[in-house]
Amino acid sequence: MRPPSSSPPSPSPSLWRDTDFRRLWAGQTASQLGEHTTLVVLPLFAVLTLDAGAGPLGALRAVGQAPILLLSLLAGAWVDRWRARTVMVLTDAARAVALGAAAVAGLLGLLGLPALFVVAFTVGALSVLFDVAYQASLVRMVRRDQLVRGNSALEGSRSAAQIGGPALGGALVSLLSAPVAAAAGALFFAVSFVSLRRIRRPESVPERVAPVPERPELAAPVRGRIREGLRFVAGNAWLRAVCLASAAFQLSFAATMTVYLLFLPRELHLTGATVGLALAATGPGALLGSVLAARLPGRLGHGVVLVSAAVLGNGALLCVPALYGSSTATILALLAVNFVFGTFSQLVNVTVMSVRQAVTPDGMQGRAAATITFVGMGFTPLGSLLGGLLAQEWGLRTGLLVTAAGMMLSPVLMAASPLARLGRLLPVPREEPRPTE
Does pTM surpass 0.70? Predict the structure, then answer.
């Protein structure tokens, strides 16, 4: 396929013939597998090995998610000023060391909940840095006409990791042990480190903004740029709605997942491998959601797709509290619920991303994305704590029903906002704001 061009187009070489891109793809794939494996392994380690209850599990998940709130905005501003590959290599090495140490301590019987909290926070903080850096790395490596194909390959590996990571983590915990599963996560990060370290293409350091006497705001570029991003999102009706709906969803979803990870093994008596398999069903759903996102908004309208997909996806989780036992029918129902949730959640995610990109000027894209992530994902630690508290006070089944019902607030907020009125064509961006004084 040739990129569109007005005059004699030159052939766009295949990215798969580019050795450095293959190394980036392989490293990012291994890193995503390590991350998604770890997201299941650490909670299962706490529940199955350390016999953690609802409160400690909620706290563990909150600690692992806290770096999203604490570091997202800083990571966005900081990574823009350094070589992305350097950040990715260092964070991979550090995550491999952290999980490797946890695996050794677990095998020796020395890993308790306090140490597991430290590991969860460390891995979470390093993952925030890696995720921001890898999104910047592709732009600095390939030609502009190769970005779509490059992003497609990288997002495909992310979806594959969503399928394979939870299933692998759950299987290793069930068949071997939680420390061995943690060691597998460390191995994935080590593979990513080696692959990214072998990239040979030079990467220039992004230009640092020098202070100008007439522009005192440039003397503190990080603080000033973060403030501009916050003000821009707050001043845009569509982006404000995205922030509110995202915050409502992430708060309720984090609470739901905390109860969910207790409900499956303790109420339904499922093994770690079955839990991983159930969670992995969201991966194929996400792939289908990505395909639907390329077609449905242009046919039905972006607003209709956003609201209806959120209702269907979030509403599917309301079926889980009605399940009993560990029969084949229960497992099939869980797979179906997670597949439906993965499909429509991804449809919402991709459509929201298109809306954000459409209404945001080029010079504000990174800061707008970081601000929305900060506001939306920043509520996840509170949600995890809330989920643990509700499960502890009201029981697993009632707690799961209440938290899953809370997820329906997100489509309600979208339906009451300008997002619901978006048609088949997206609006154009406003003029880029002037730097703050």
Answer: no
